[in-house]
Design brief:
The complex is a heterotetramer, with 2 copies of chain A and 2 copies of chain B.
Chain A lengths: L1 E7 L2 E10 L4 H13 L4 E12 L1 H14 L5 E5 L3 H9 L7 E3 L2 H5 L5
Parallel strand pairs in A: 2-3, 3-4, 4-5
Antiparallel strand pairs in A: 1-2
Chain B lengths: L6 E7 L5 H15 L3 H22 L7 E8 L3 E8 L23 H8 L2 E6 L5 E8 L15
Helix pairs in contact in B: 1-2, 2-3
Classes of the chains: A alpha/beta, B alpha+beta.
Bound molecules: adenosine-5'-diphosphate (ADP) (2 copies).
């Protein structure tokens, strides 16, 4: 797994590539924590290049949601392949997460 | 003997580093067996969840214990058996959390059950747990036909 | 036990179809061990030649016999052991043809010897032949350092 | 392994992709035999997309050389990756085969 981080205005964009499993999840967790600690309120994870995600990856993402709970922070996912989206759907998590079709949409402000 | 070698068996240390090559082997096997892309992804997910649970729950995260993954083809199904060398766990104690109660973890068994046709825990010959994951091949467009592997 | 699982062991049927996934496993292992691209290609070549010879010469082309491939890492070398369940062949009878005499075949043993640091044939515990292929890791830029696999 | 066949004037071009080993060699042999039987005198094998070749593959190519011996037929190889070329070199076959850098060069007539 590879993660690259970019600042986009208010948001931090993390572009994730490769496979997310029990081996790579700790690294993903570290990247997400670092991004949260950088002070950005909005986190966008672009997952176009994620080839595989398992329940360890889902757990890591749920942890972020829980950390953000009660704060103004937001987490958005974008660009999920059908295989990755299927894992969210099978876990009933596709409604819990804010999943957007494109990176651009995920980086956009919501109408206030 | 013929039946015994109608597939691949791989033994790995219980280190998460080895999940990726096992996944690759499972994906290759699924493709050989004639599964499409979606089913192949399902199978790699299930085998990952099964091995992850062995590392986490059976070996308590220890990295140098042994896991055997046995992949066998037939013309109608792909069967993956995951064997550990720990102590046998009552299958009744292995179940997913309630999906509505959102928390990290507790999804592996659920995912395996969703994507496979059979998920079965048994005691193995070494006193540990054997997890059998089976998926039927739909249609008859599969590559490995009866007898094709015979010498 | 700890030593025993410091690597991967895979058992395949003696069908050439299974050479590709074994090669993939060997390539993955070589990369993990820190070998560069060229050495990784050398290792996949050697493991392919070793398994091909077992299928051809030990099992006479029969497709459903068993081959075990054991890949073990250390901080200084990658060692691949290929075990068959046939009859032990006198290593003195296993040698390449003269390279000047051009004909199809007769290059496998030569290639293994060229690309590996050790090519050794021995009798194994089952009365068959065990082929050990070993290659040293040059430099110290390898990934799997001592102890990294410990639990 | 995948083989595609194209007619180029006098020559038949076979573009080979993938891995050549004991499993795929019989198919390569069949393709080569079919190309020879198509009546073309010159065979060009473009190997740019060959990721792997072992001694079974070399043996298959040596068979073609032997079939062509004494006839007017020619075999040329082009576009070998460094890894594939290394296997020829290790076997002292890089001098035996007519190996060209590019497909274009391999398809060209030699100055008479
Ligand atoms: N191989 C195993 N050995 C022992 N217990 C297991 C094993 N696999 C699963 N379990 C039990 O089943 C529970 C549910 O597993 P799972 O759905 O994968 O979620 P998680 O592993 O995240 O807890 C685990 O918490 C554990 O108690
Ligand atoms: N695993 C084996 N069991 C028995 N004999 C073998 C084995 N490997 C190699 N040999 C012998 O060594 C010879 C040389 O092998 P090799 O260089 O690979 O060329 P080839 O397999 O094309 O003949 C073979 O022809 C065979 O007689």
């Amino acid at each position: 797994m590879e993660v690259t981080r970019e600042k986009h205005g208010d948001s931090v964009l993390l572009v994730i590539a490769g496979q997310i499993d029990m081996y790579s999840s700790p690294e993903l967790r570290a990247e997400l924590t670092a991004a949260l600690e950088s002070g950005s309120k909005r986190l966008v994870l672009d997952m176009e290049k994620v080839e595989f995600i398992d329940s360890s990856g889902l757990a890591t993402l749920i942890e972020v949601l829980q950390k953000l709970r009660g704060s103004e922070g937001k987490l958005r996912l974008s660009n999920l392949s059908s295989g990755v989206l299927a894992v969210f759907e099978l876990s009933n998590l596709d409604q819990l997460f804010d999943i957007r079709a494109t990176r651009e949409e995920a980086l956009q402000d919501d109408p206030a | 003997m013929a039946d015994e070698v109608r597939g691949i068996r791989v033994s790995i240390p219980s280190h998460p580093r080895f999940l990726a090559p096992v996944r690759d082997l499972a994906a290759w096997s699924a493709e050989q067996a004639g599964f499409g892309c979606e089913d192949t992804e399902a199978i790699t997910l299930a085998v990952t969840e099964g091995c992850t649970n062995v590392i986490r729950h059976c070996y308590g995260g220890k990295h140098n214990e042994r896991i055997d993954v046995d992949i066998s083809f037939s013309t109608r199904a792909l069967t993956i058996r995951i064997d550990d060398y720990g102590t046998f766990v009552d299958p009744a104690s292995i179940h997913s959390r309630d999906l509505d109660e959102v928390r990290p973890g507790g999804l592996g068994v659920h995912l395996m059950q969703q994507v496979m046709d059979q998920v079965r825990y048994e005691r193995n010959a070494w006193g540990g747990t054997s997890l059998t994951l089976m998926k039927h091949i739909q249609g008859d467009d599969h590559v490995l036909r009866s007898g094709e592997l015979d010498g």
